[in-house]
Design the sequence.
């Protein structure tokens, strides 16, 4: 039997994304229609605007990936979509499209958890999902998970307040940088920012558990604002770059320290990192150094698989397809969906 062809749709937030995957690792097409420039004037995602744009983008995007993959729609084996977590009005568009195609073509439908998409993205294209300690750091989520195998997850810890990406975006907004803030902070930090210039708090670094807290860090930056923004001479001299580098260092220090401690505590030799924030240059550097020092193997999702995309959704869908774990057509979206994990 030839390898299955899965078409997956991701519309959990502001990116409309569609991908076609053959088997579990041959990506035939993966397209993203980004809405960043549409939401930028509002300083964040406007749900109604996102939903309307998904609706206009989804059909041309599906047609484009079919053309690129040189696949006829009736030859697809299954249709998958992100069912949650995310914005209800955005999730609905992708789920309705995938269900509609599954019904029309009488093929299986697969509802996929967005967090599981990120969680397994470092294994994209690999033969096996290996046991590991996995850090997921995105705009909506920060969690540490122990993976035993596909579908067997243990939640080790998570954020008590803001997600790491949310902290990047909120701090960037305070600093009057455009949305989304993560890449802006990364860029300014790289432009000569001194990570030791400001001693921002490393909240919960010594808490002895694997939970995180980033809202205090945001408040610490807010207290520095008059100095940062008020003194134009300072900003042109790189004060802003120093704040970005110091803030980023504080976030990355906590993420690295807790992830390494979790791997040691659970006796895992492999660490994985995924989600939008794993694009961050300093995070990638510091994880590499820390894993080398502690003789741990490291897998970080490829940069194009870090931020929201449909390839990671197709990858999880392919795993489910091979196990015949299909979803009923009556499956609903769940904006607050959690990862199915034991704790
Ligand atoms: O995974 P993602 O696309 O969406 C969610 O599922 O939330 O992550 C988006 C988040 C945003 O908060 C964005 O600012 C952050 O990832 N991000 C970064 C970088 N690139 C994206 N944060 C820090 N440094 C980056 N280079
Ligand atoms: Zn995401």
Sequence:
């Amino acid at each position: 039997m030839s390898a299955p062809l899965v078409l997956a749709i991701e519309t959990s937030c502001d990116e409309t994304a569609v991908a076609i995957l053959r088997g579990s690792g041959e990506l035939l097409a993966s397209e993203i229609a980004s809405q960043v420039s549409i939401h930028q004037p509002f300083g964040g995602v406007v749900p109604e605007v996102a939903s309307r744009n998904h609706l206009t983008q989804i059909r041309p995007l599906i047609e484009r990936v079919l053309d690129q993959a040189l696949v006829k729609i009736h030859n697809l084996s299954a249709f998958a979509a992100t069912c949650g977590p995310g914005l209800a009005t955005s999730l609905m568009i992708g789920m309705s499209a995938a269900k509609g195609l599954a019904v029309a073509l009488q093929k299986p439908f697969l509802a996929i958890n967005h967090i599981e998409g990120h969680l397994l993205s470092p294994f994209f294209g690999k033969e096996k999902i290996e046991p590991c300690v996995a850090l997921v750091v995105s705009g909506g989520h920060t969690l540490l998970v122990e993976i035993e195998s596909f579908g067997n997850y243990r939640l080790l810890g998570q954020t008590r307040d803001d997600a790491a990406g949310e902290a990047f975006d909120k701090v960037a907004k305070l600093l009057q940088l455009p949305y989304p803030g993560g890449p802006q902070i990364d860029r300014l930090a790289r432009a000569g920012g001194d990570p030791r210039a400001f001693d921002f708090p490393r909240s919960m670094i010594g808490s002895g558990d694997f939970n995180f807290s980033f809202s205090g860090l945001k408040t610490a930056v807010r207290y520095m604002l008059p100095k940062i923004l008020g003194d134009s001479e300072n900003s042109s001299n790189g004060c802003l770059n120093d704040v970005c580098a110091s803030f980023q260092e504080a976030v990355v220090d906590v993420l690295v320290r807790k992830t390494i401690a979790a791997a040691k505590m659970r006796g895992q030799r492999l660490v994985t990192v995924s989600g939008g924030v794993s694009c961050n240059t300093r995070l990638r550097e510091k994880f590499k150094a820390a894993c080398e020092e502690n003789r741990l193997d490291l897998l970080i999702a490829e940069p194009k698989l870090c931020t929201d995309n449909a390839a990671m959704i197709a990858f999880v869908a392919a795993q489910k397809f091979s196990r015949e774990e299909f979803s009923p057509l009556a499956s609903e979206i769940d904006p607050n969906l959690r990862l199915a994990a034991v704790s």
About this structure: DSSP finds twelve helices and ten strands in the chain. The chain has two domains: 5-121+306-322, 128-300.
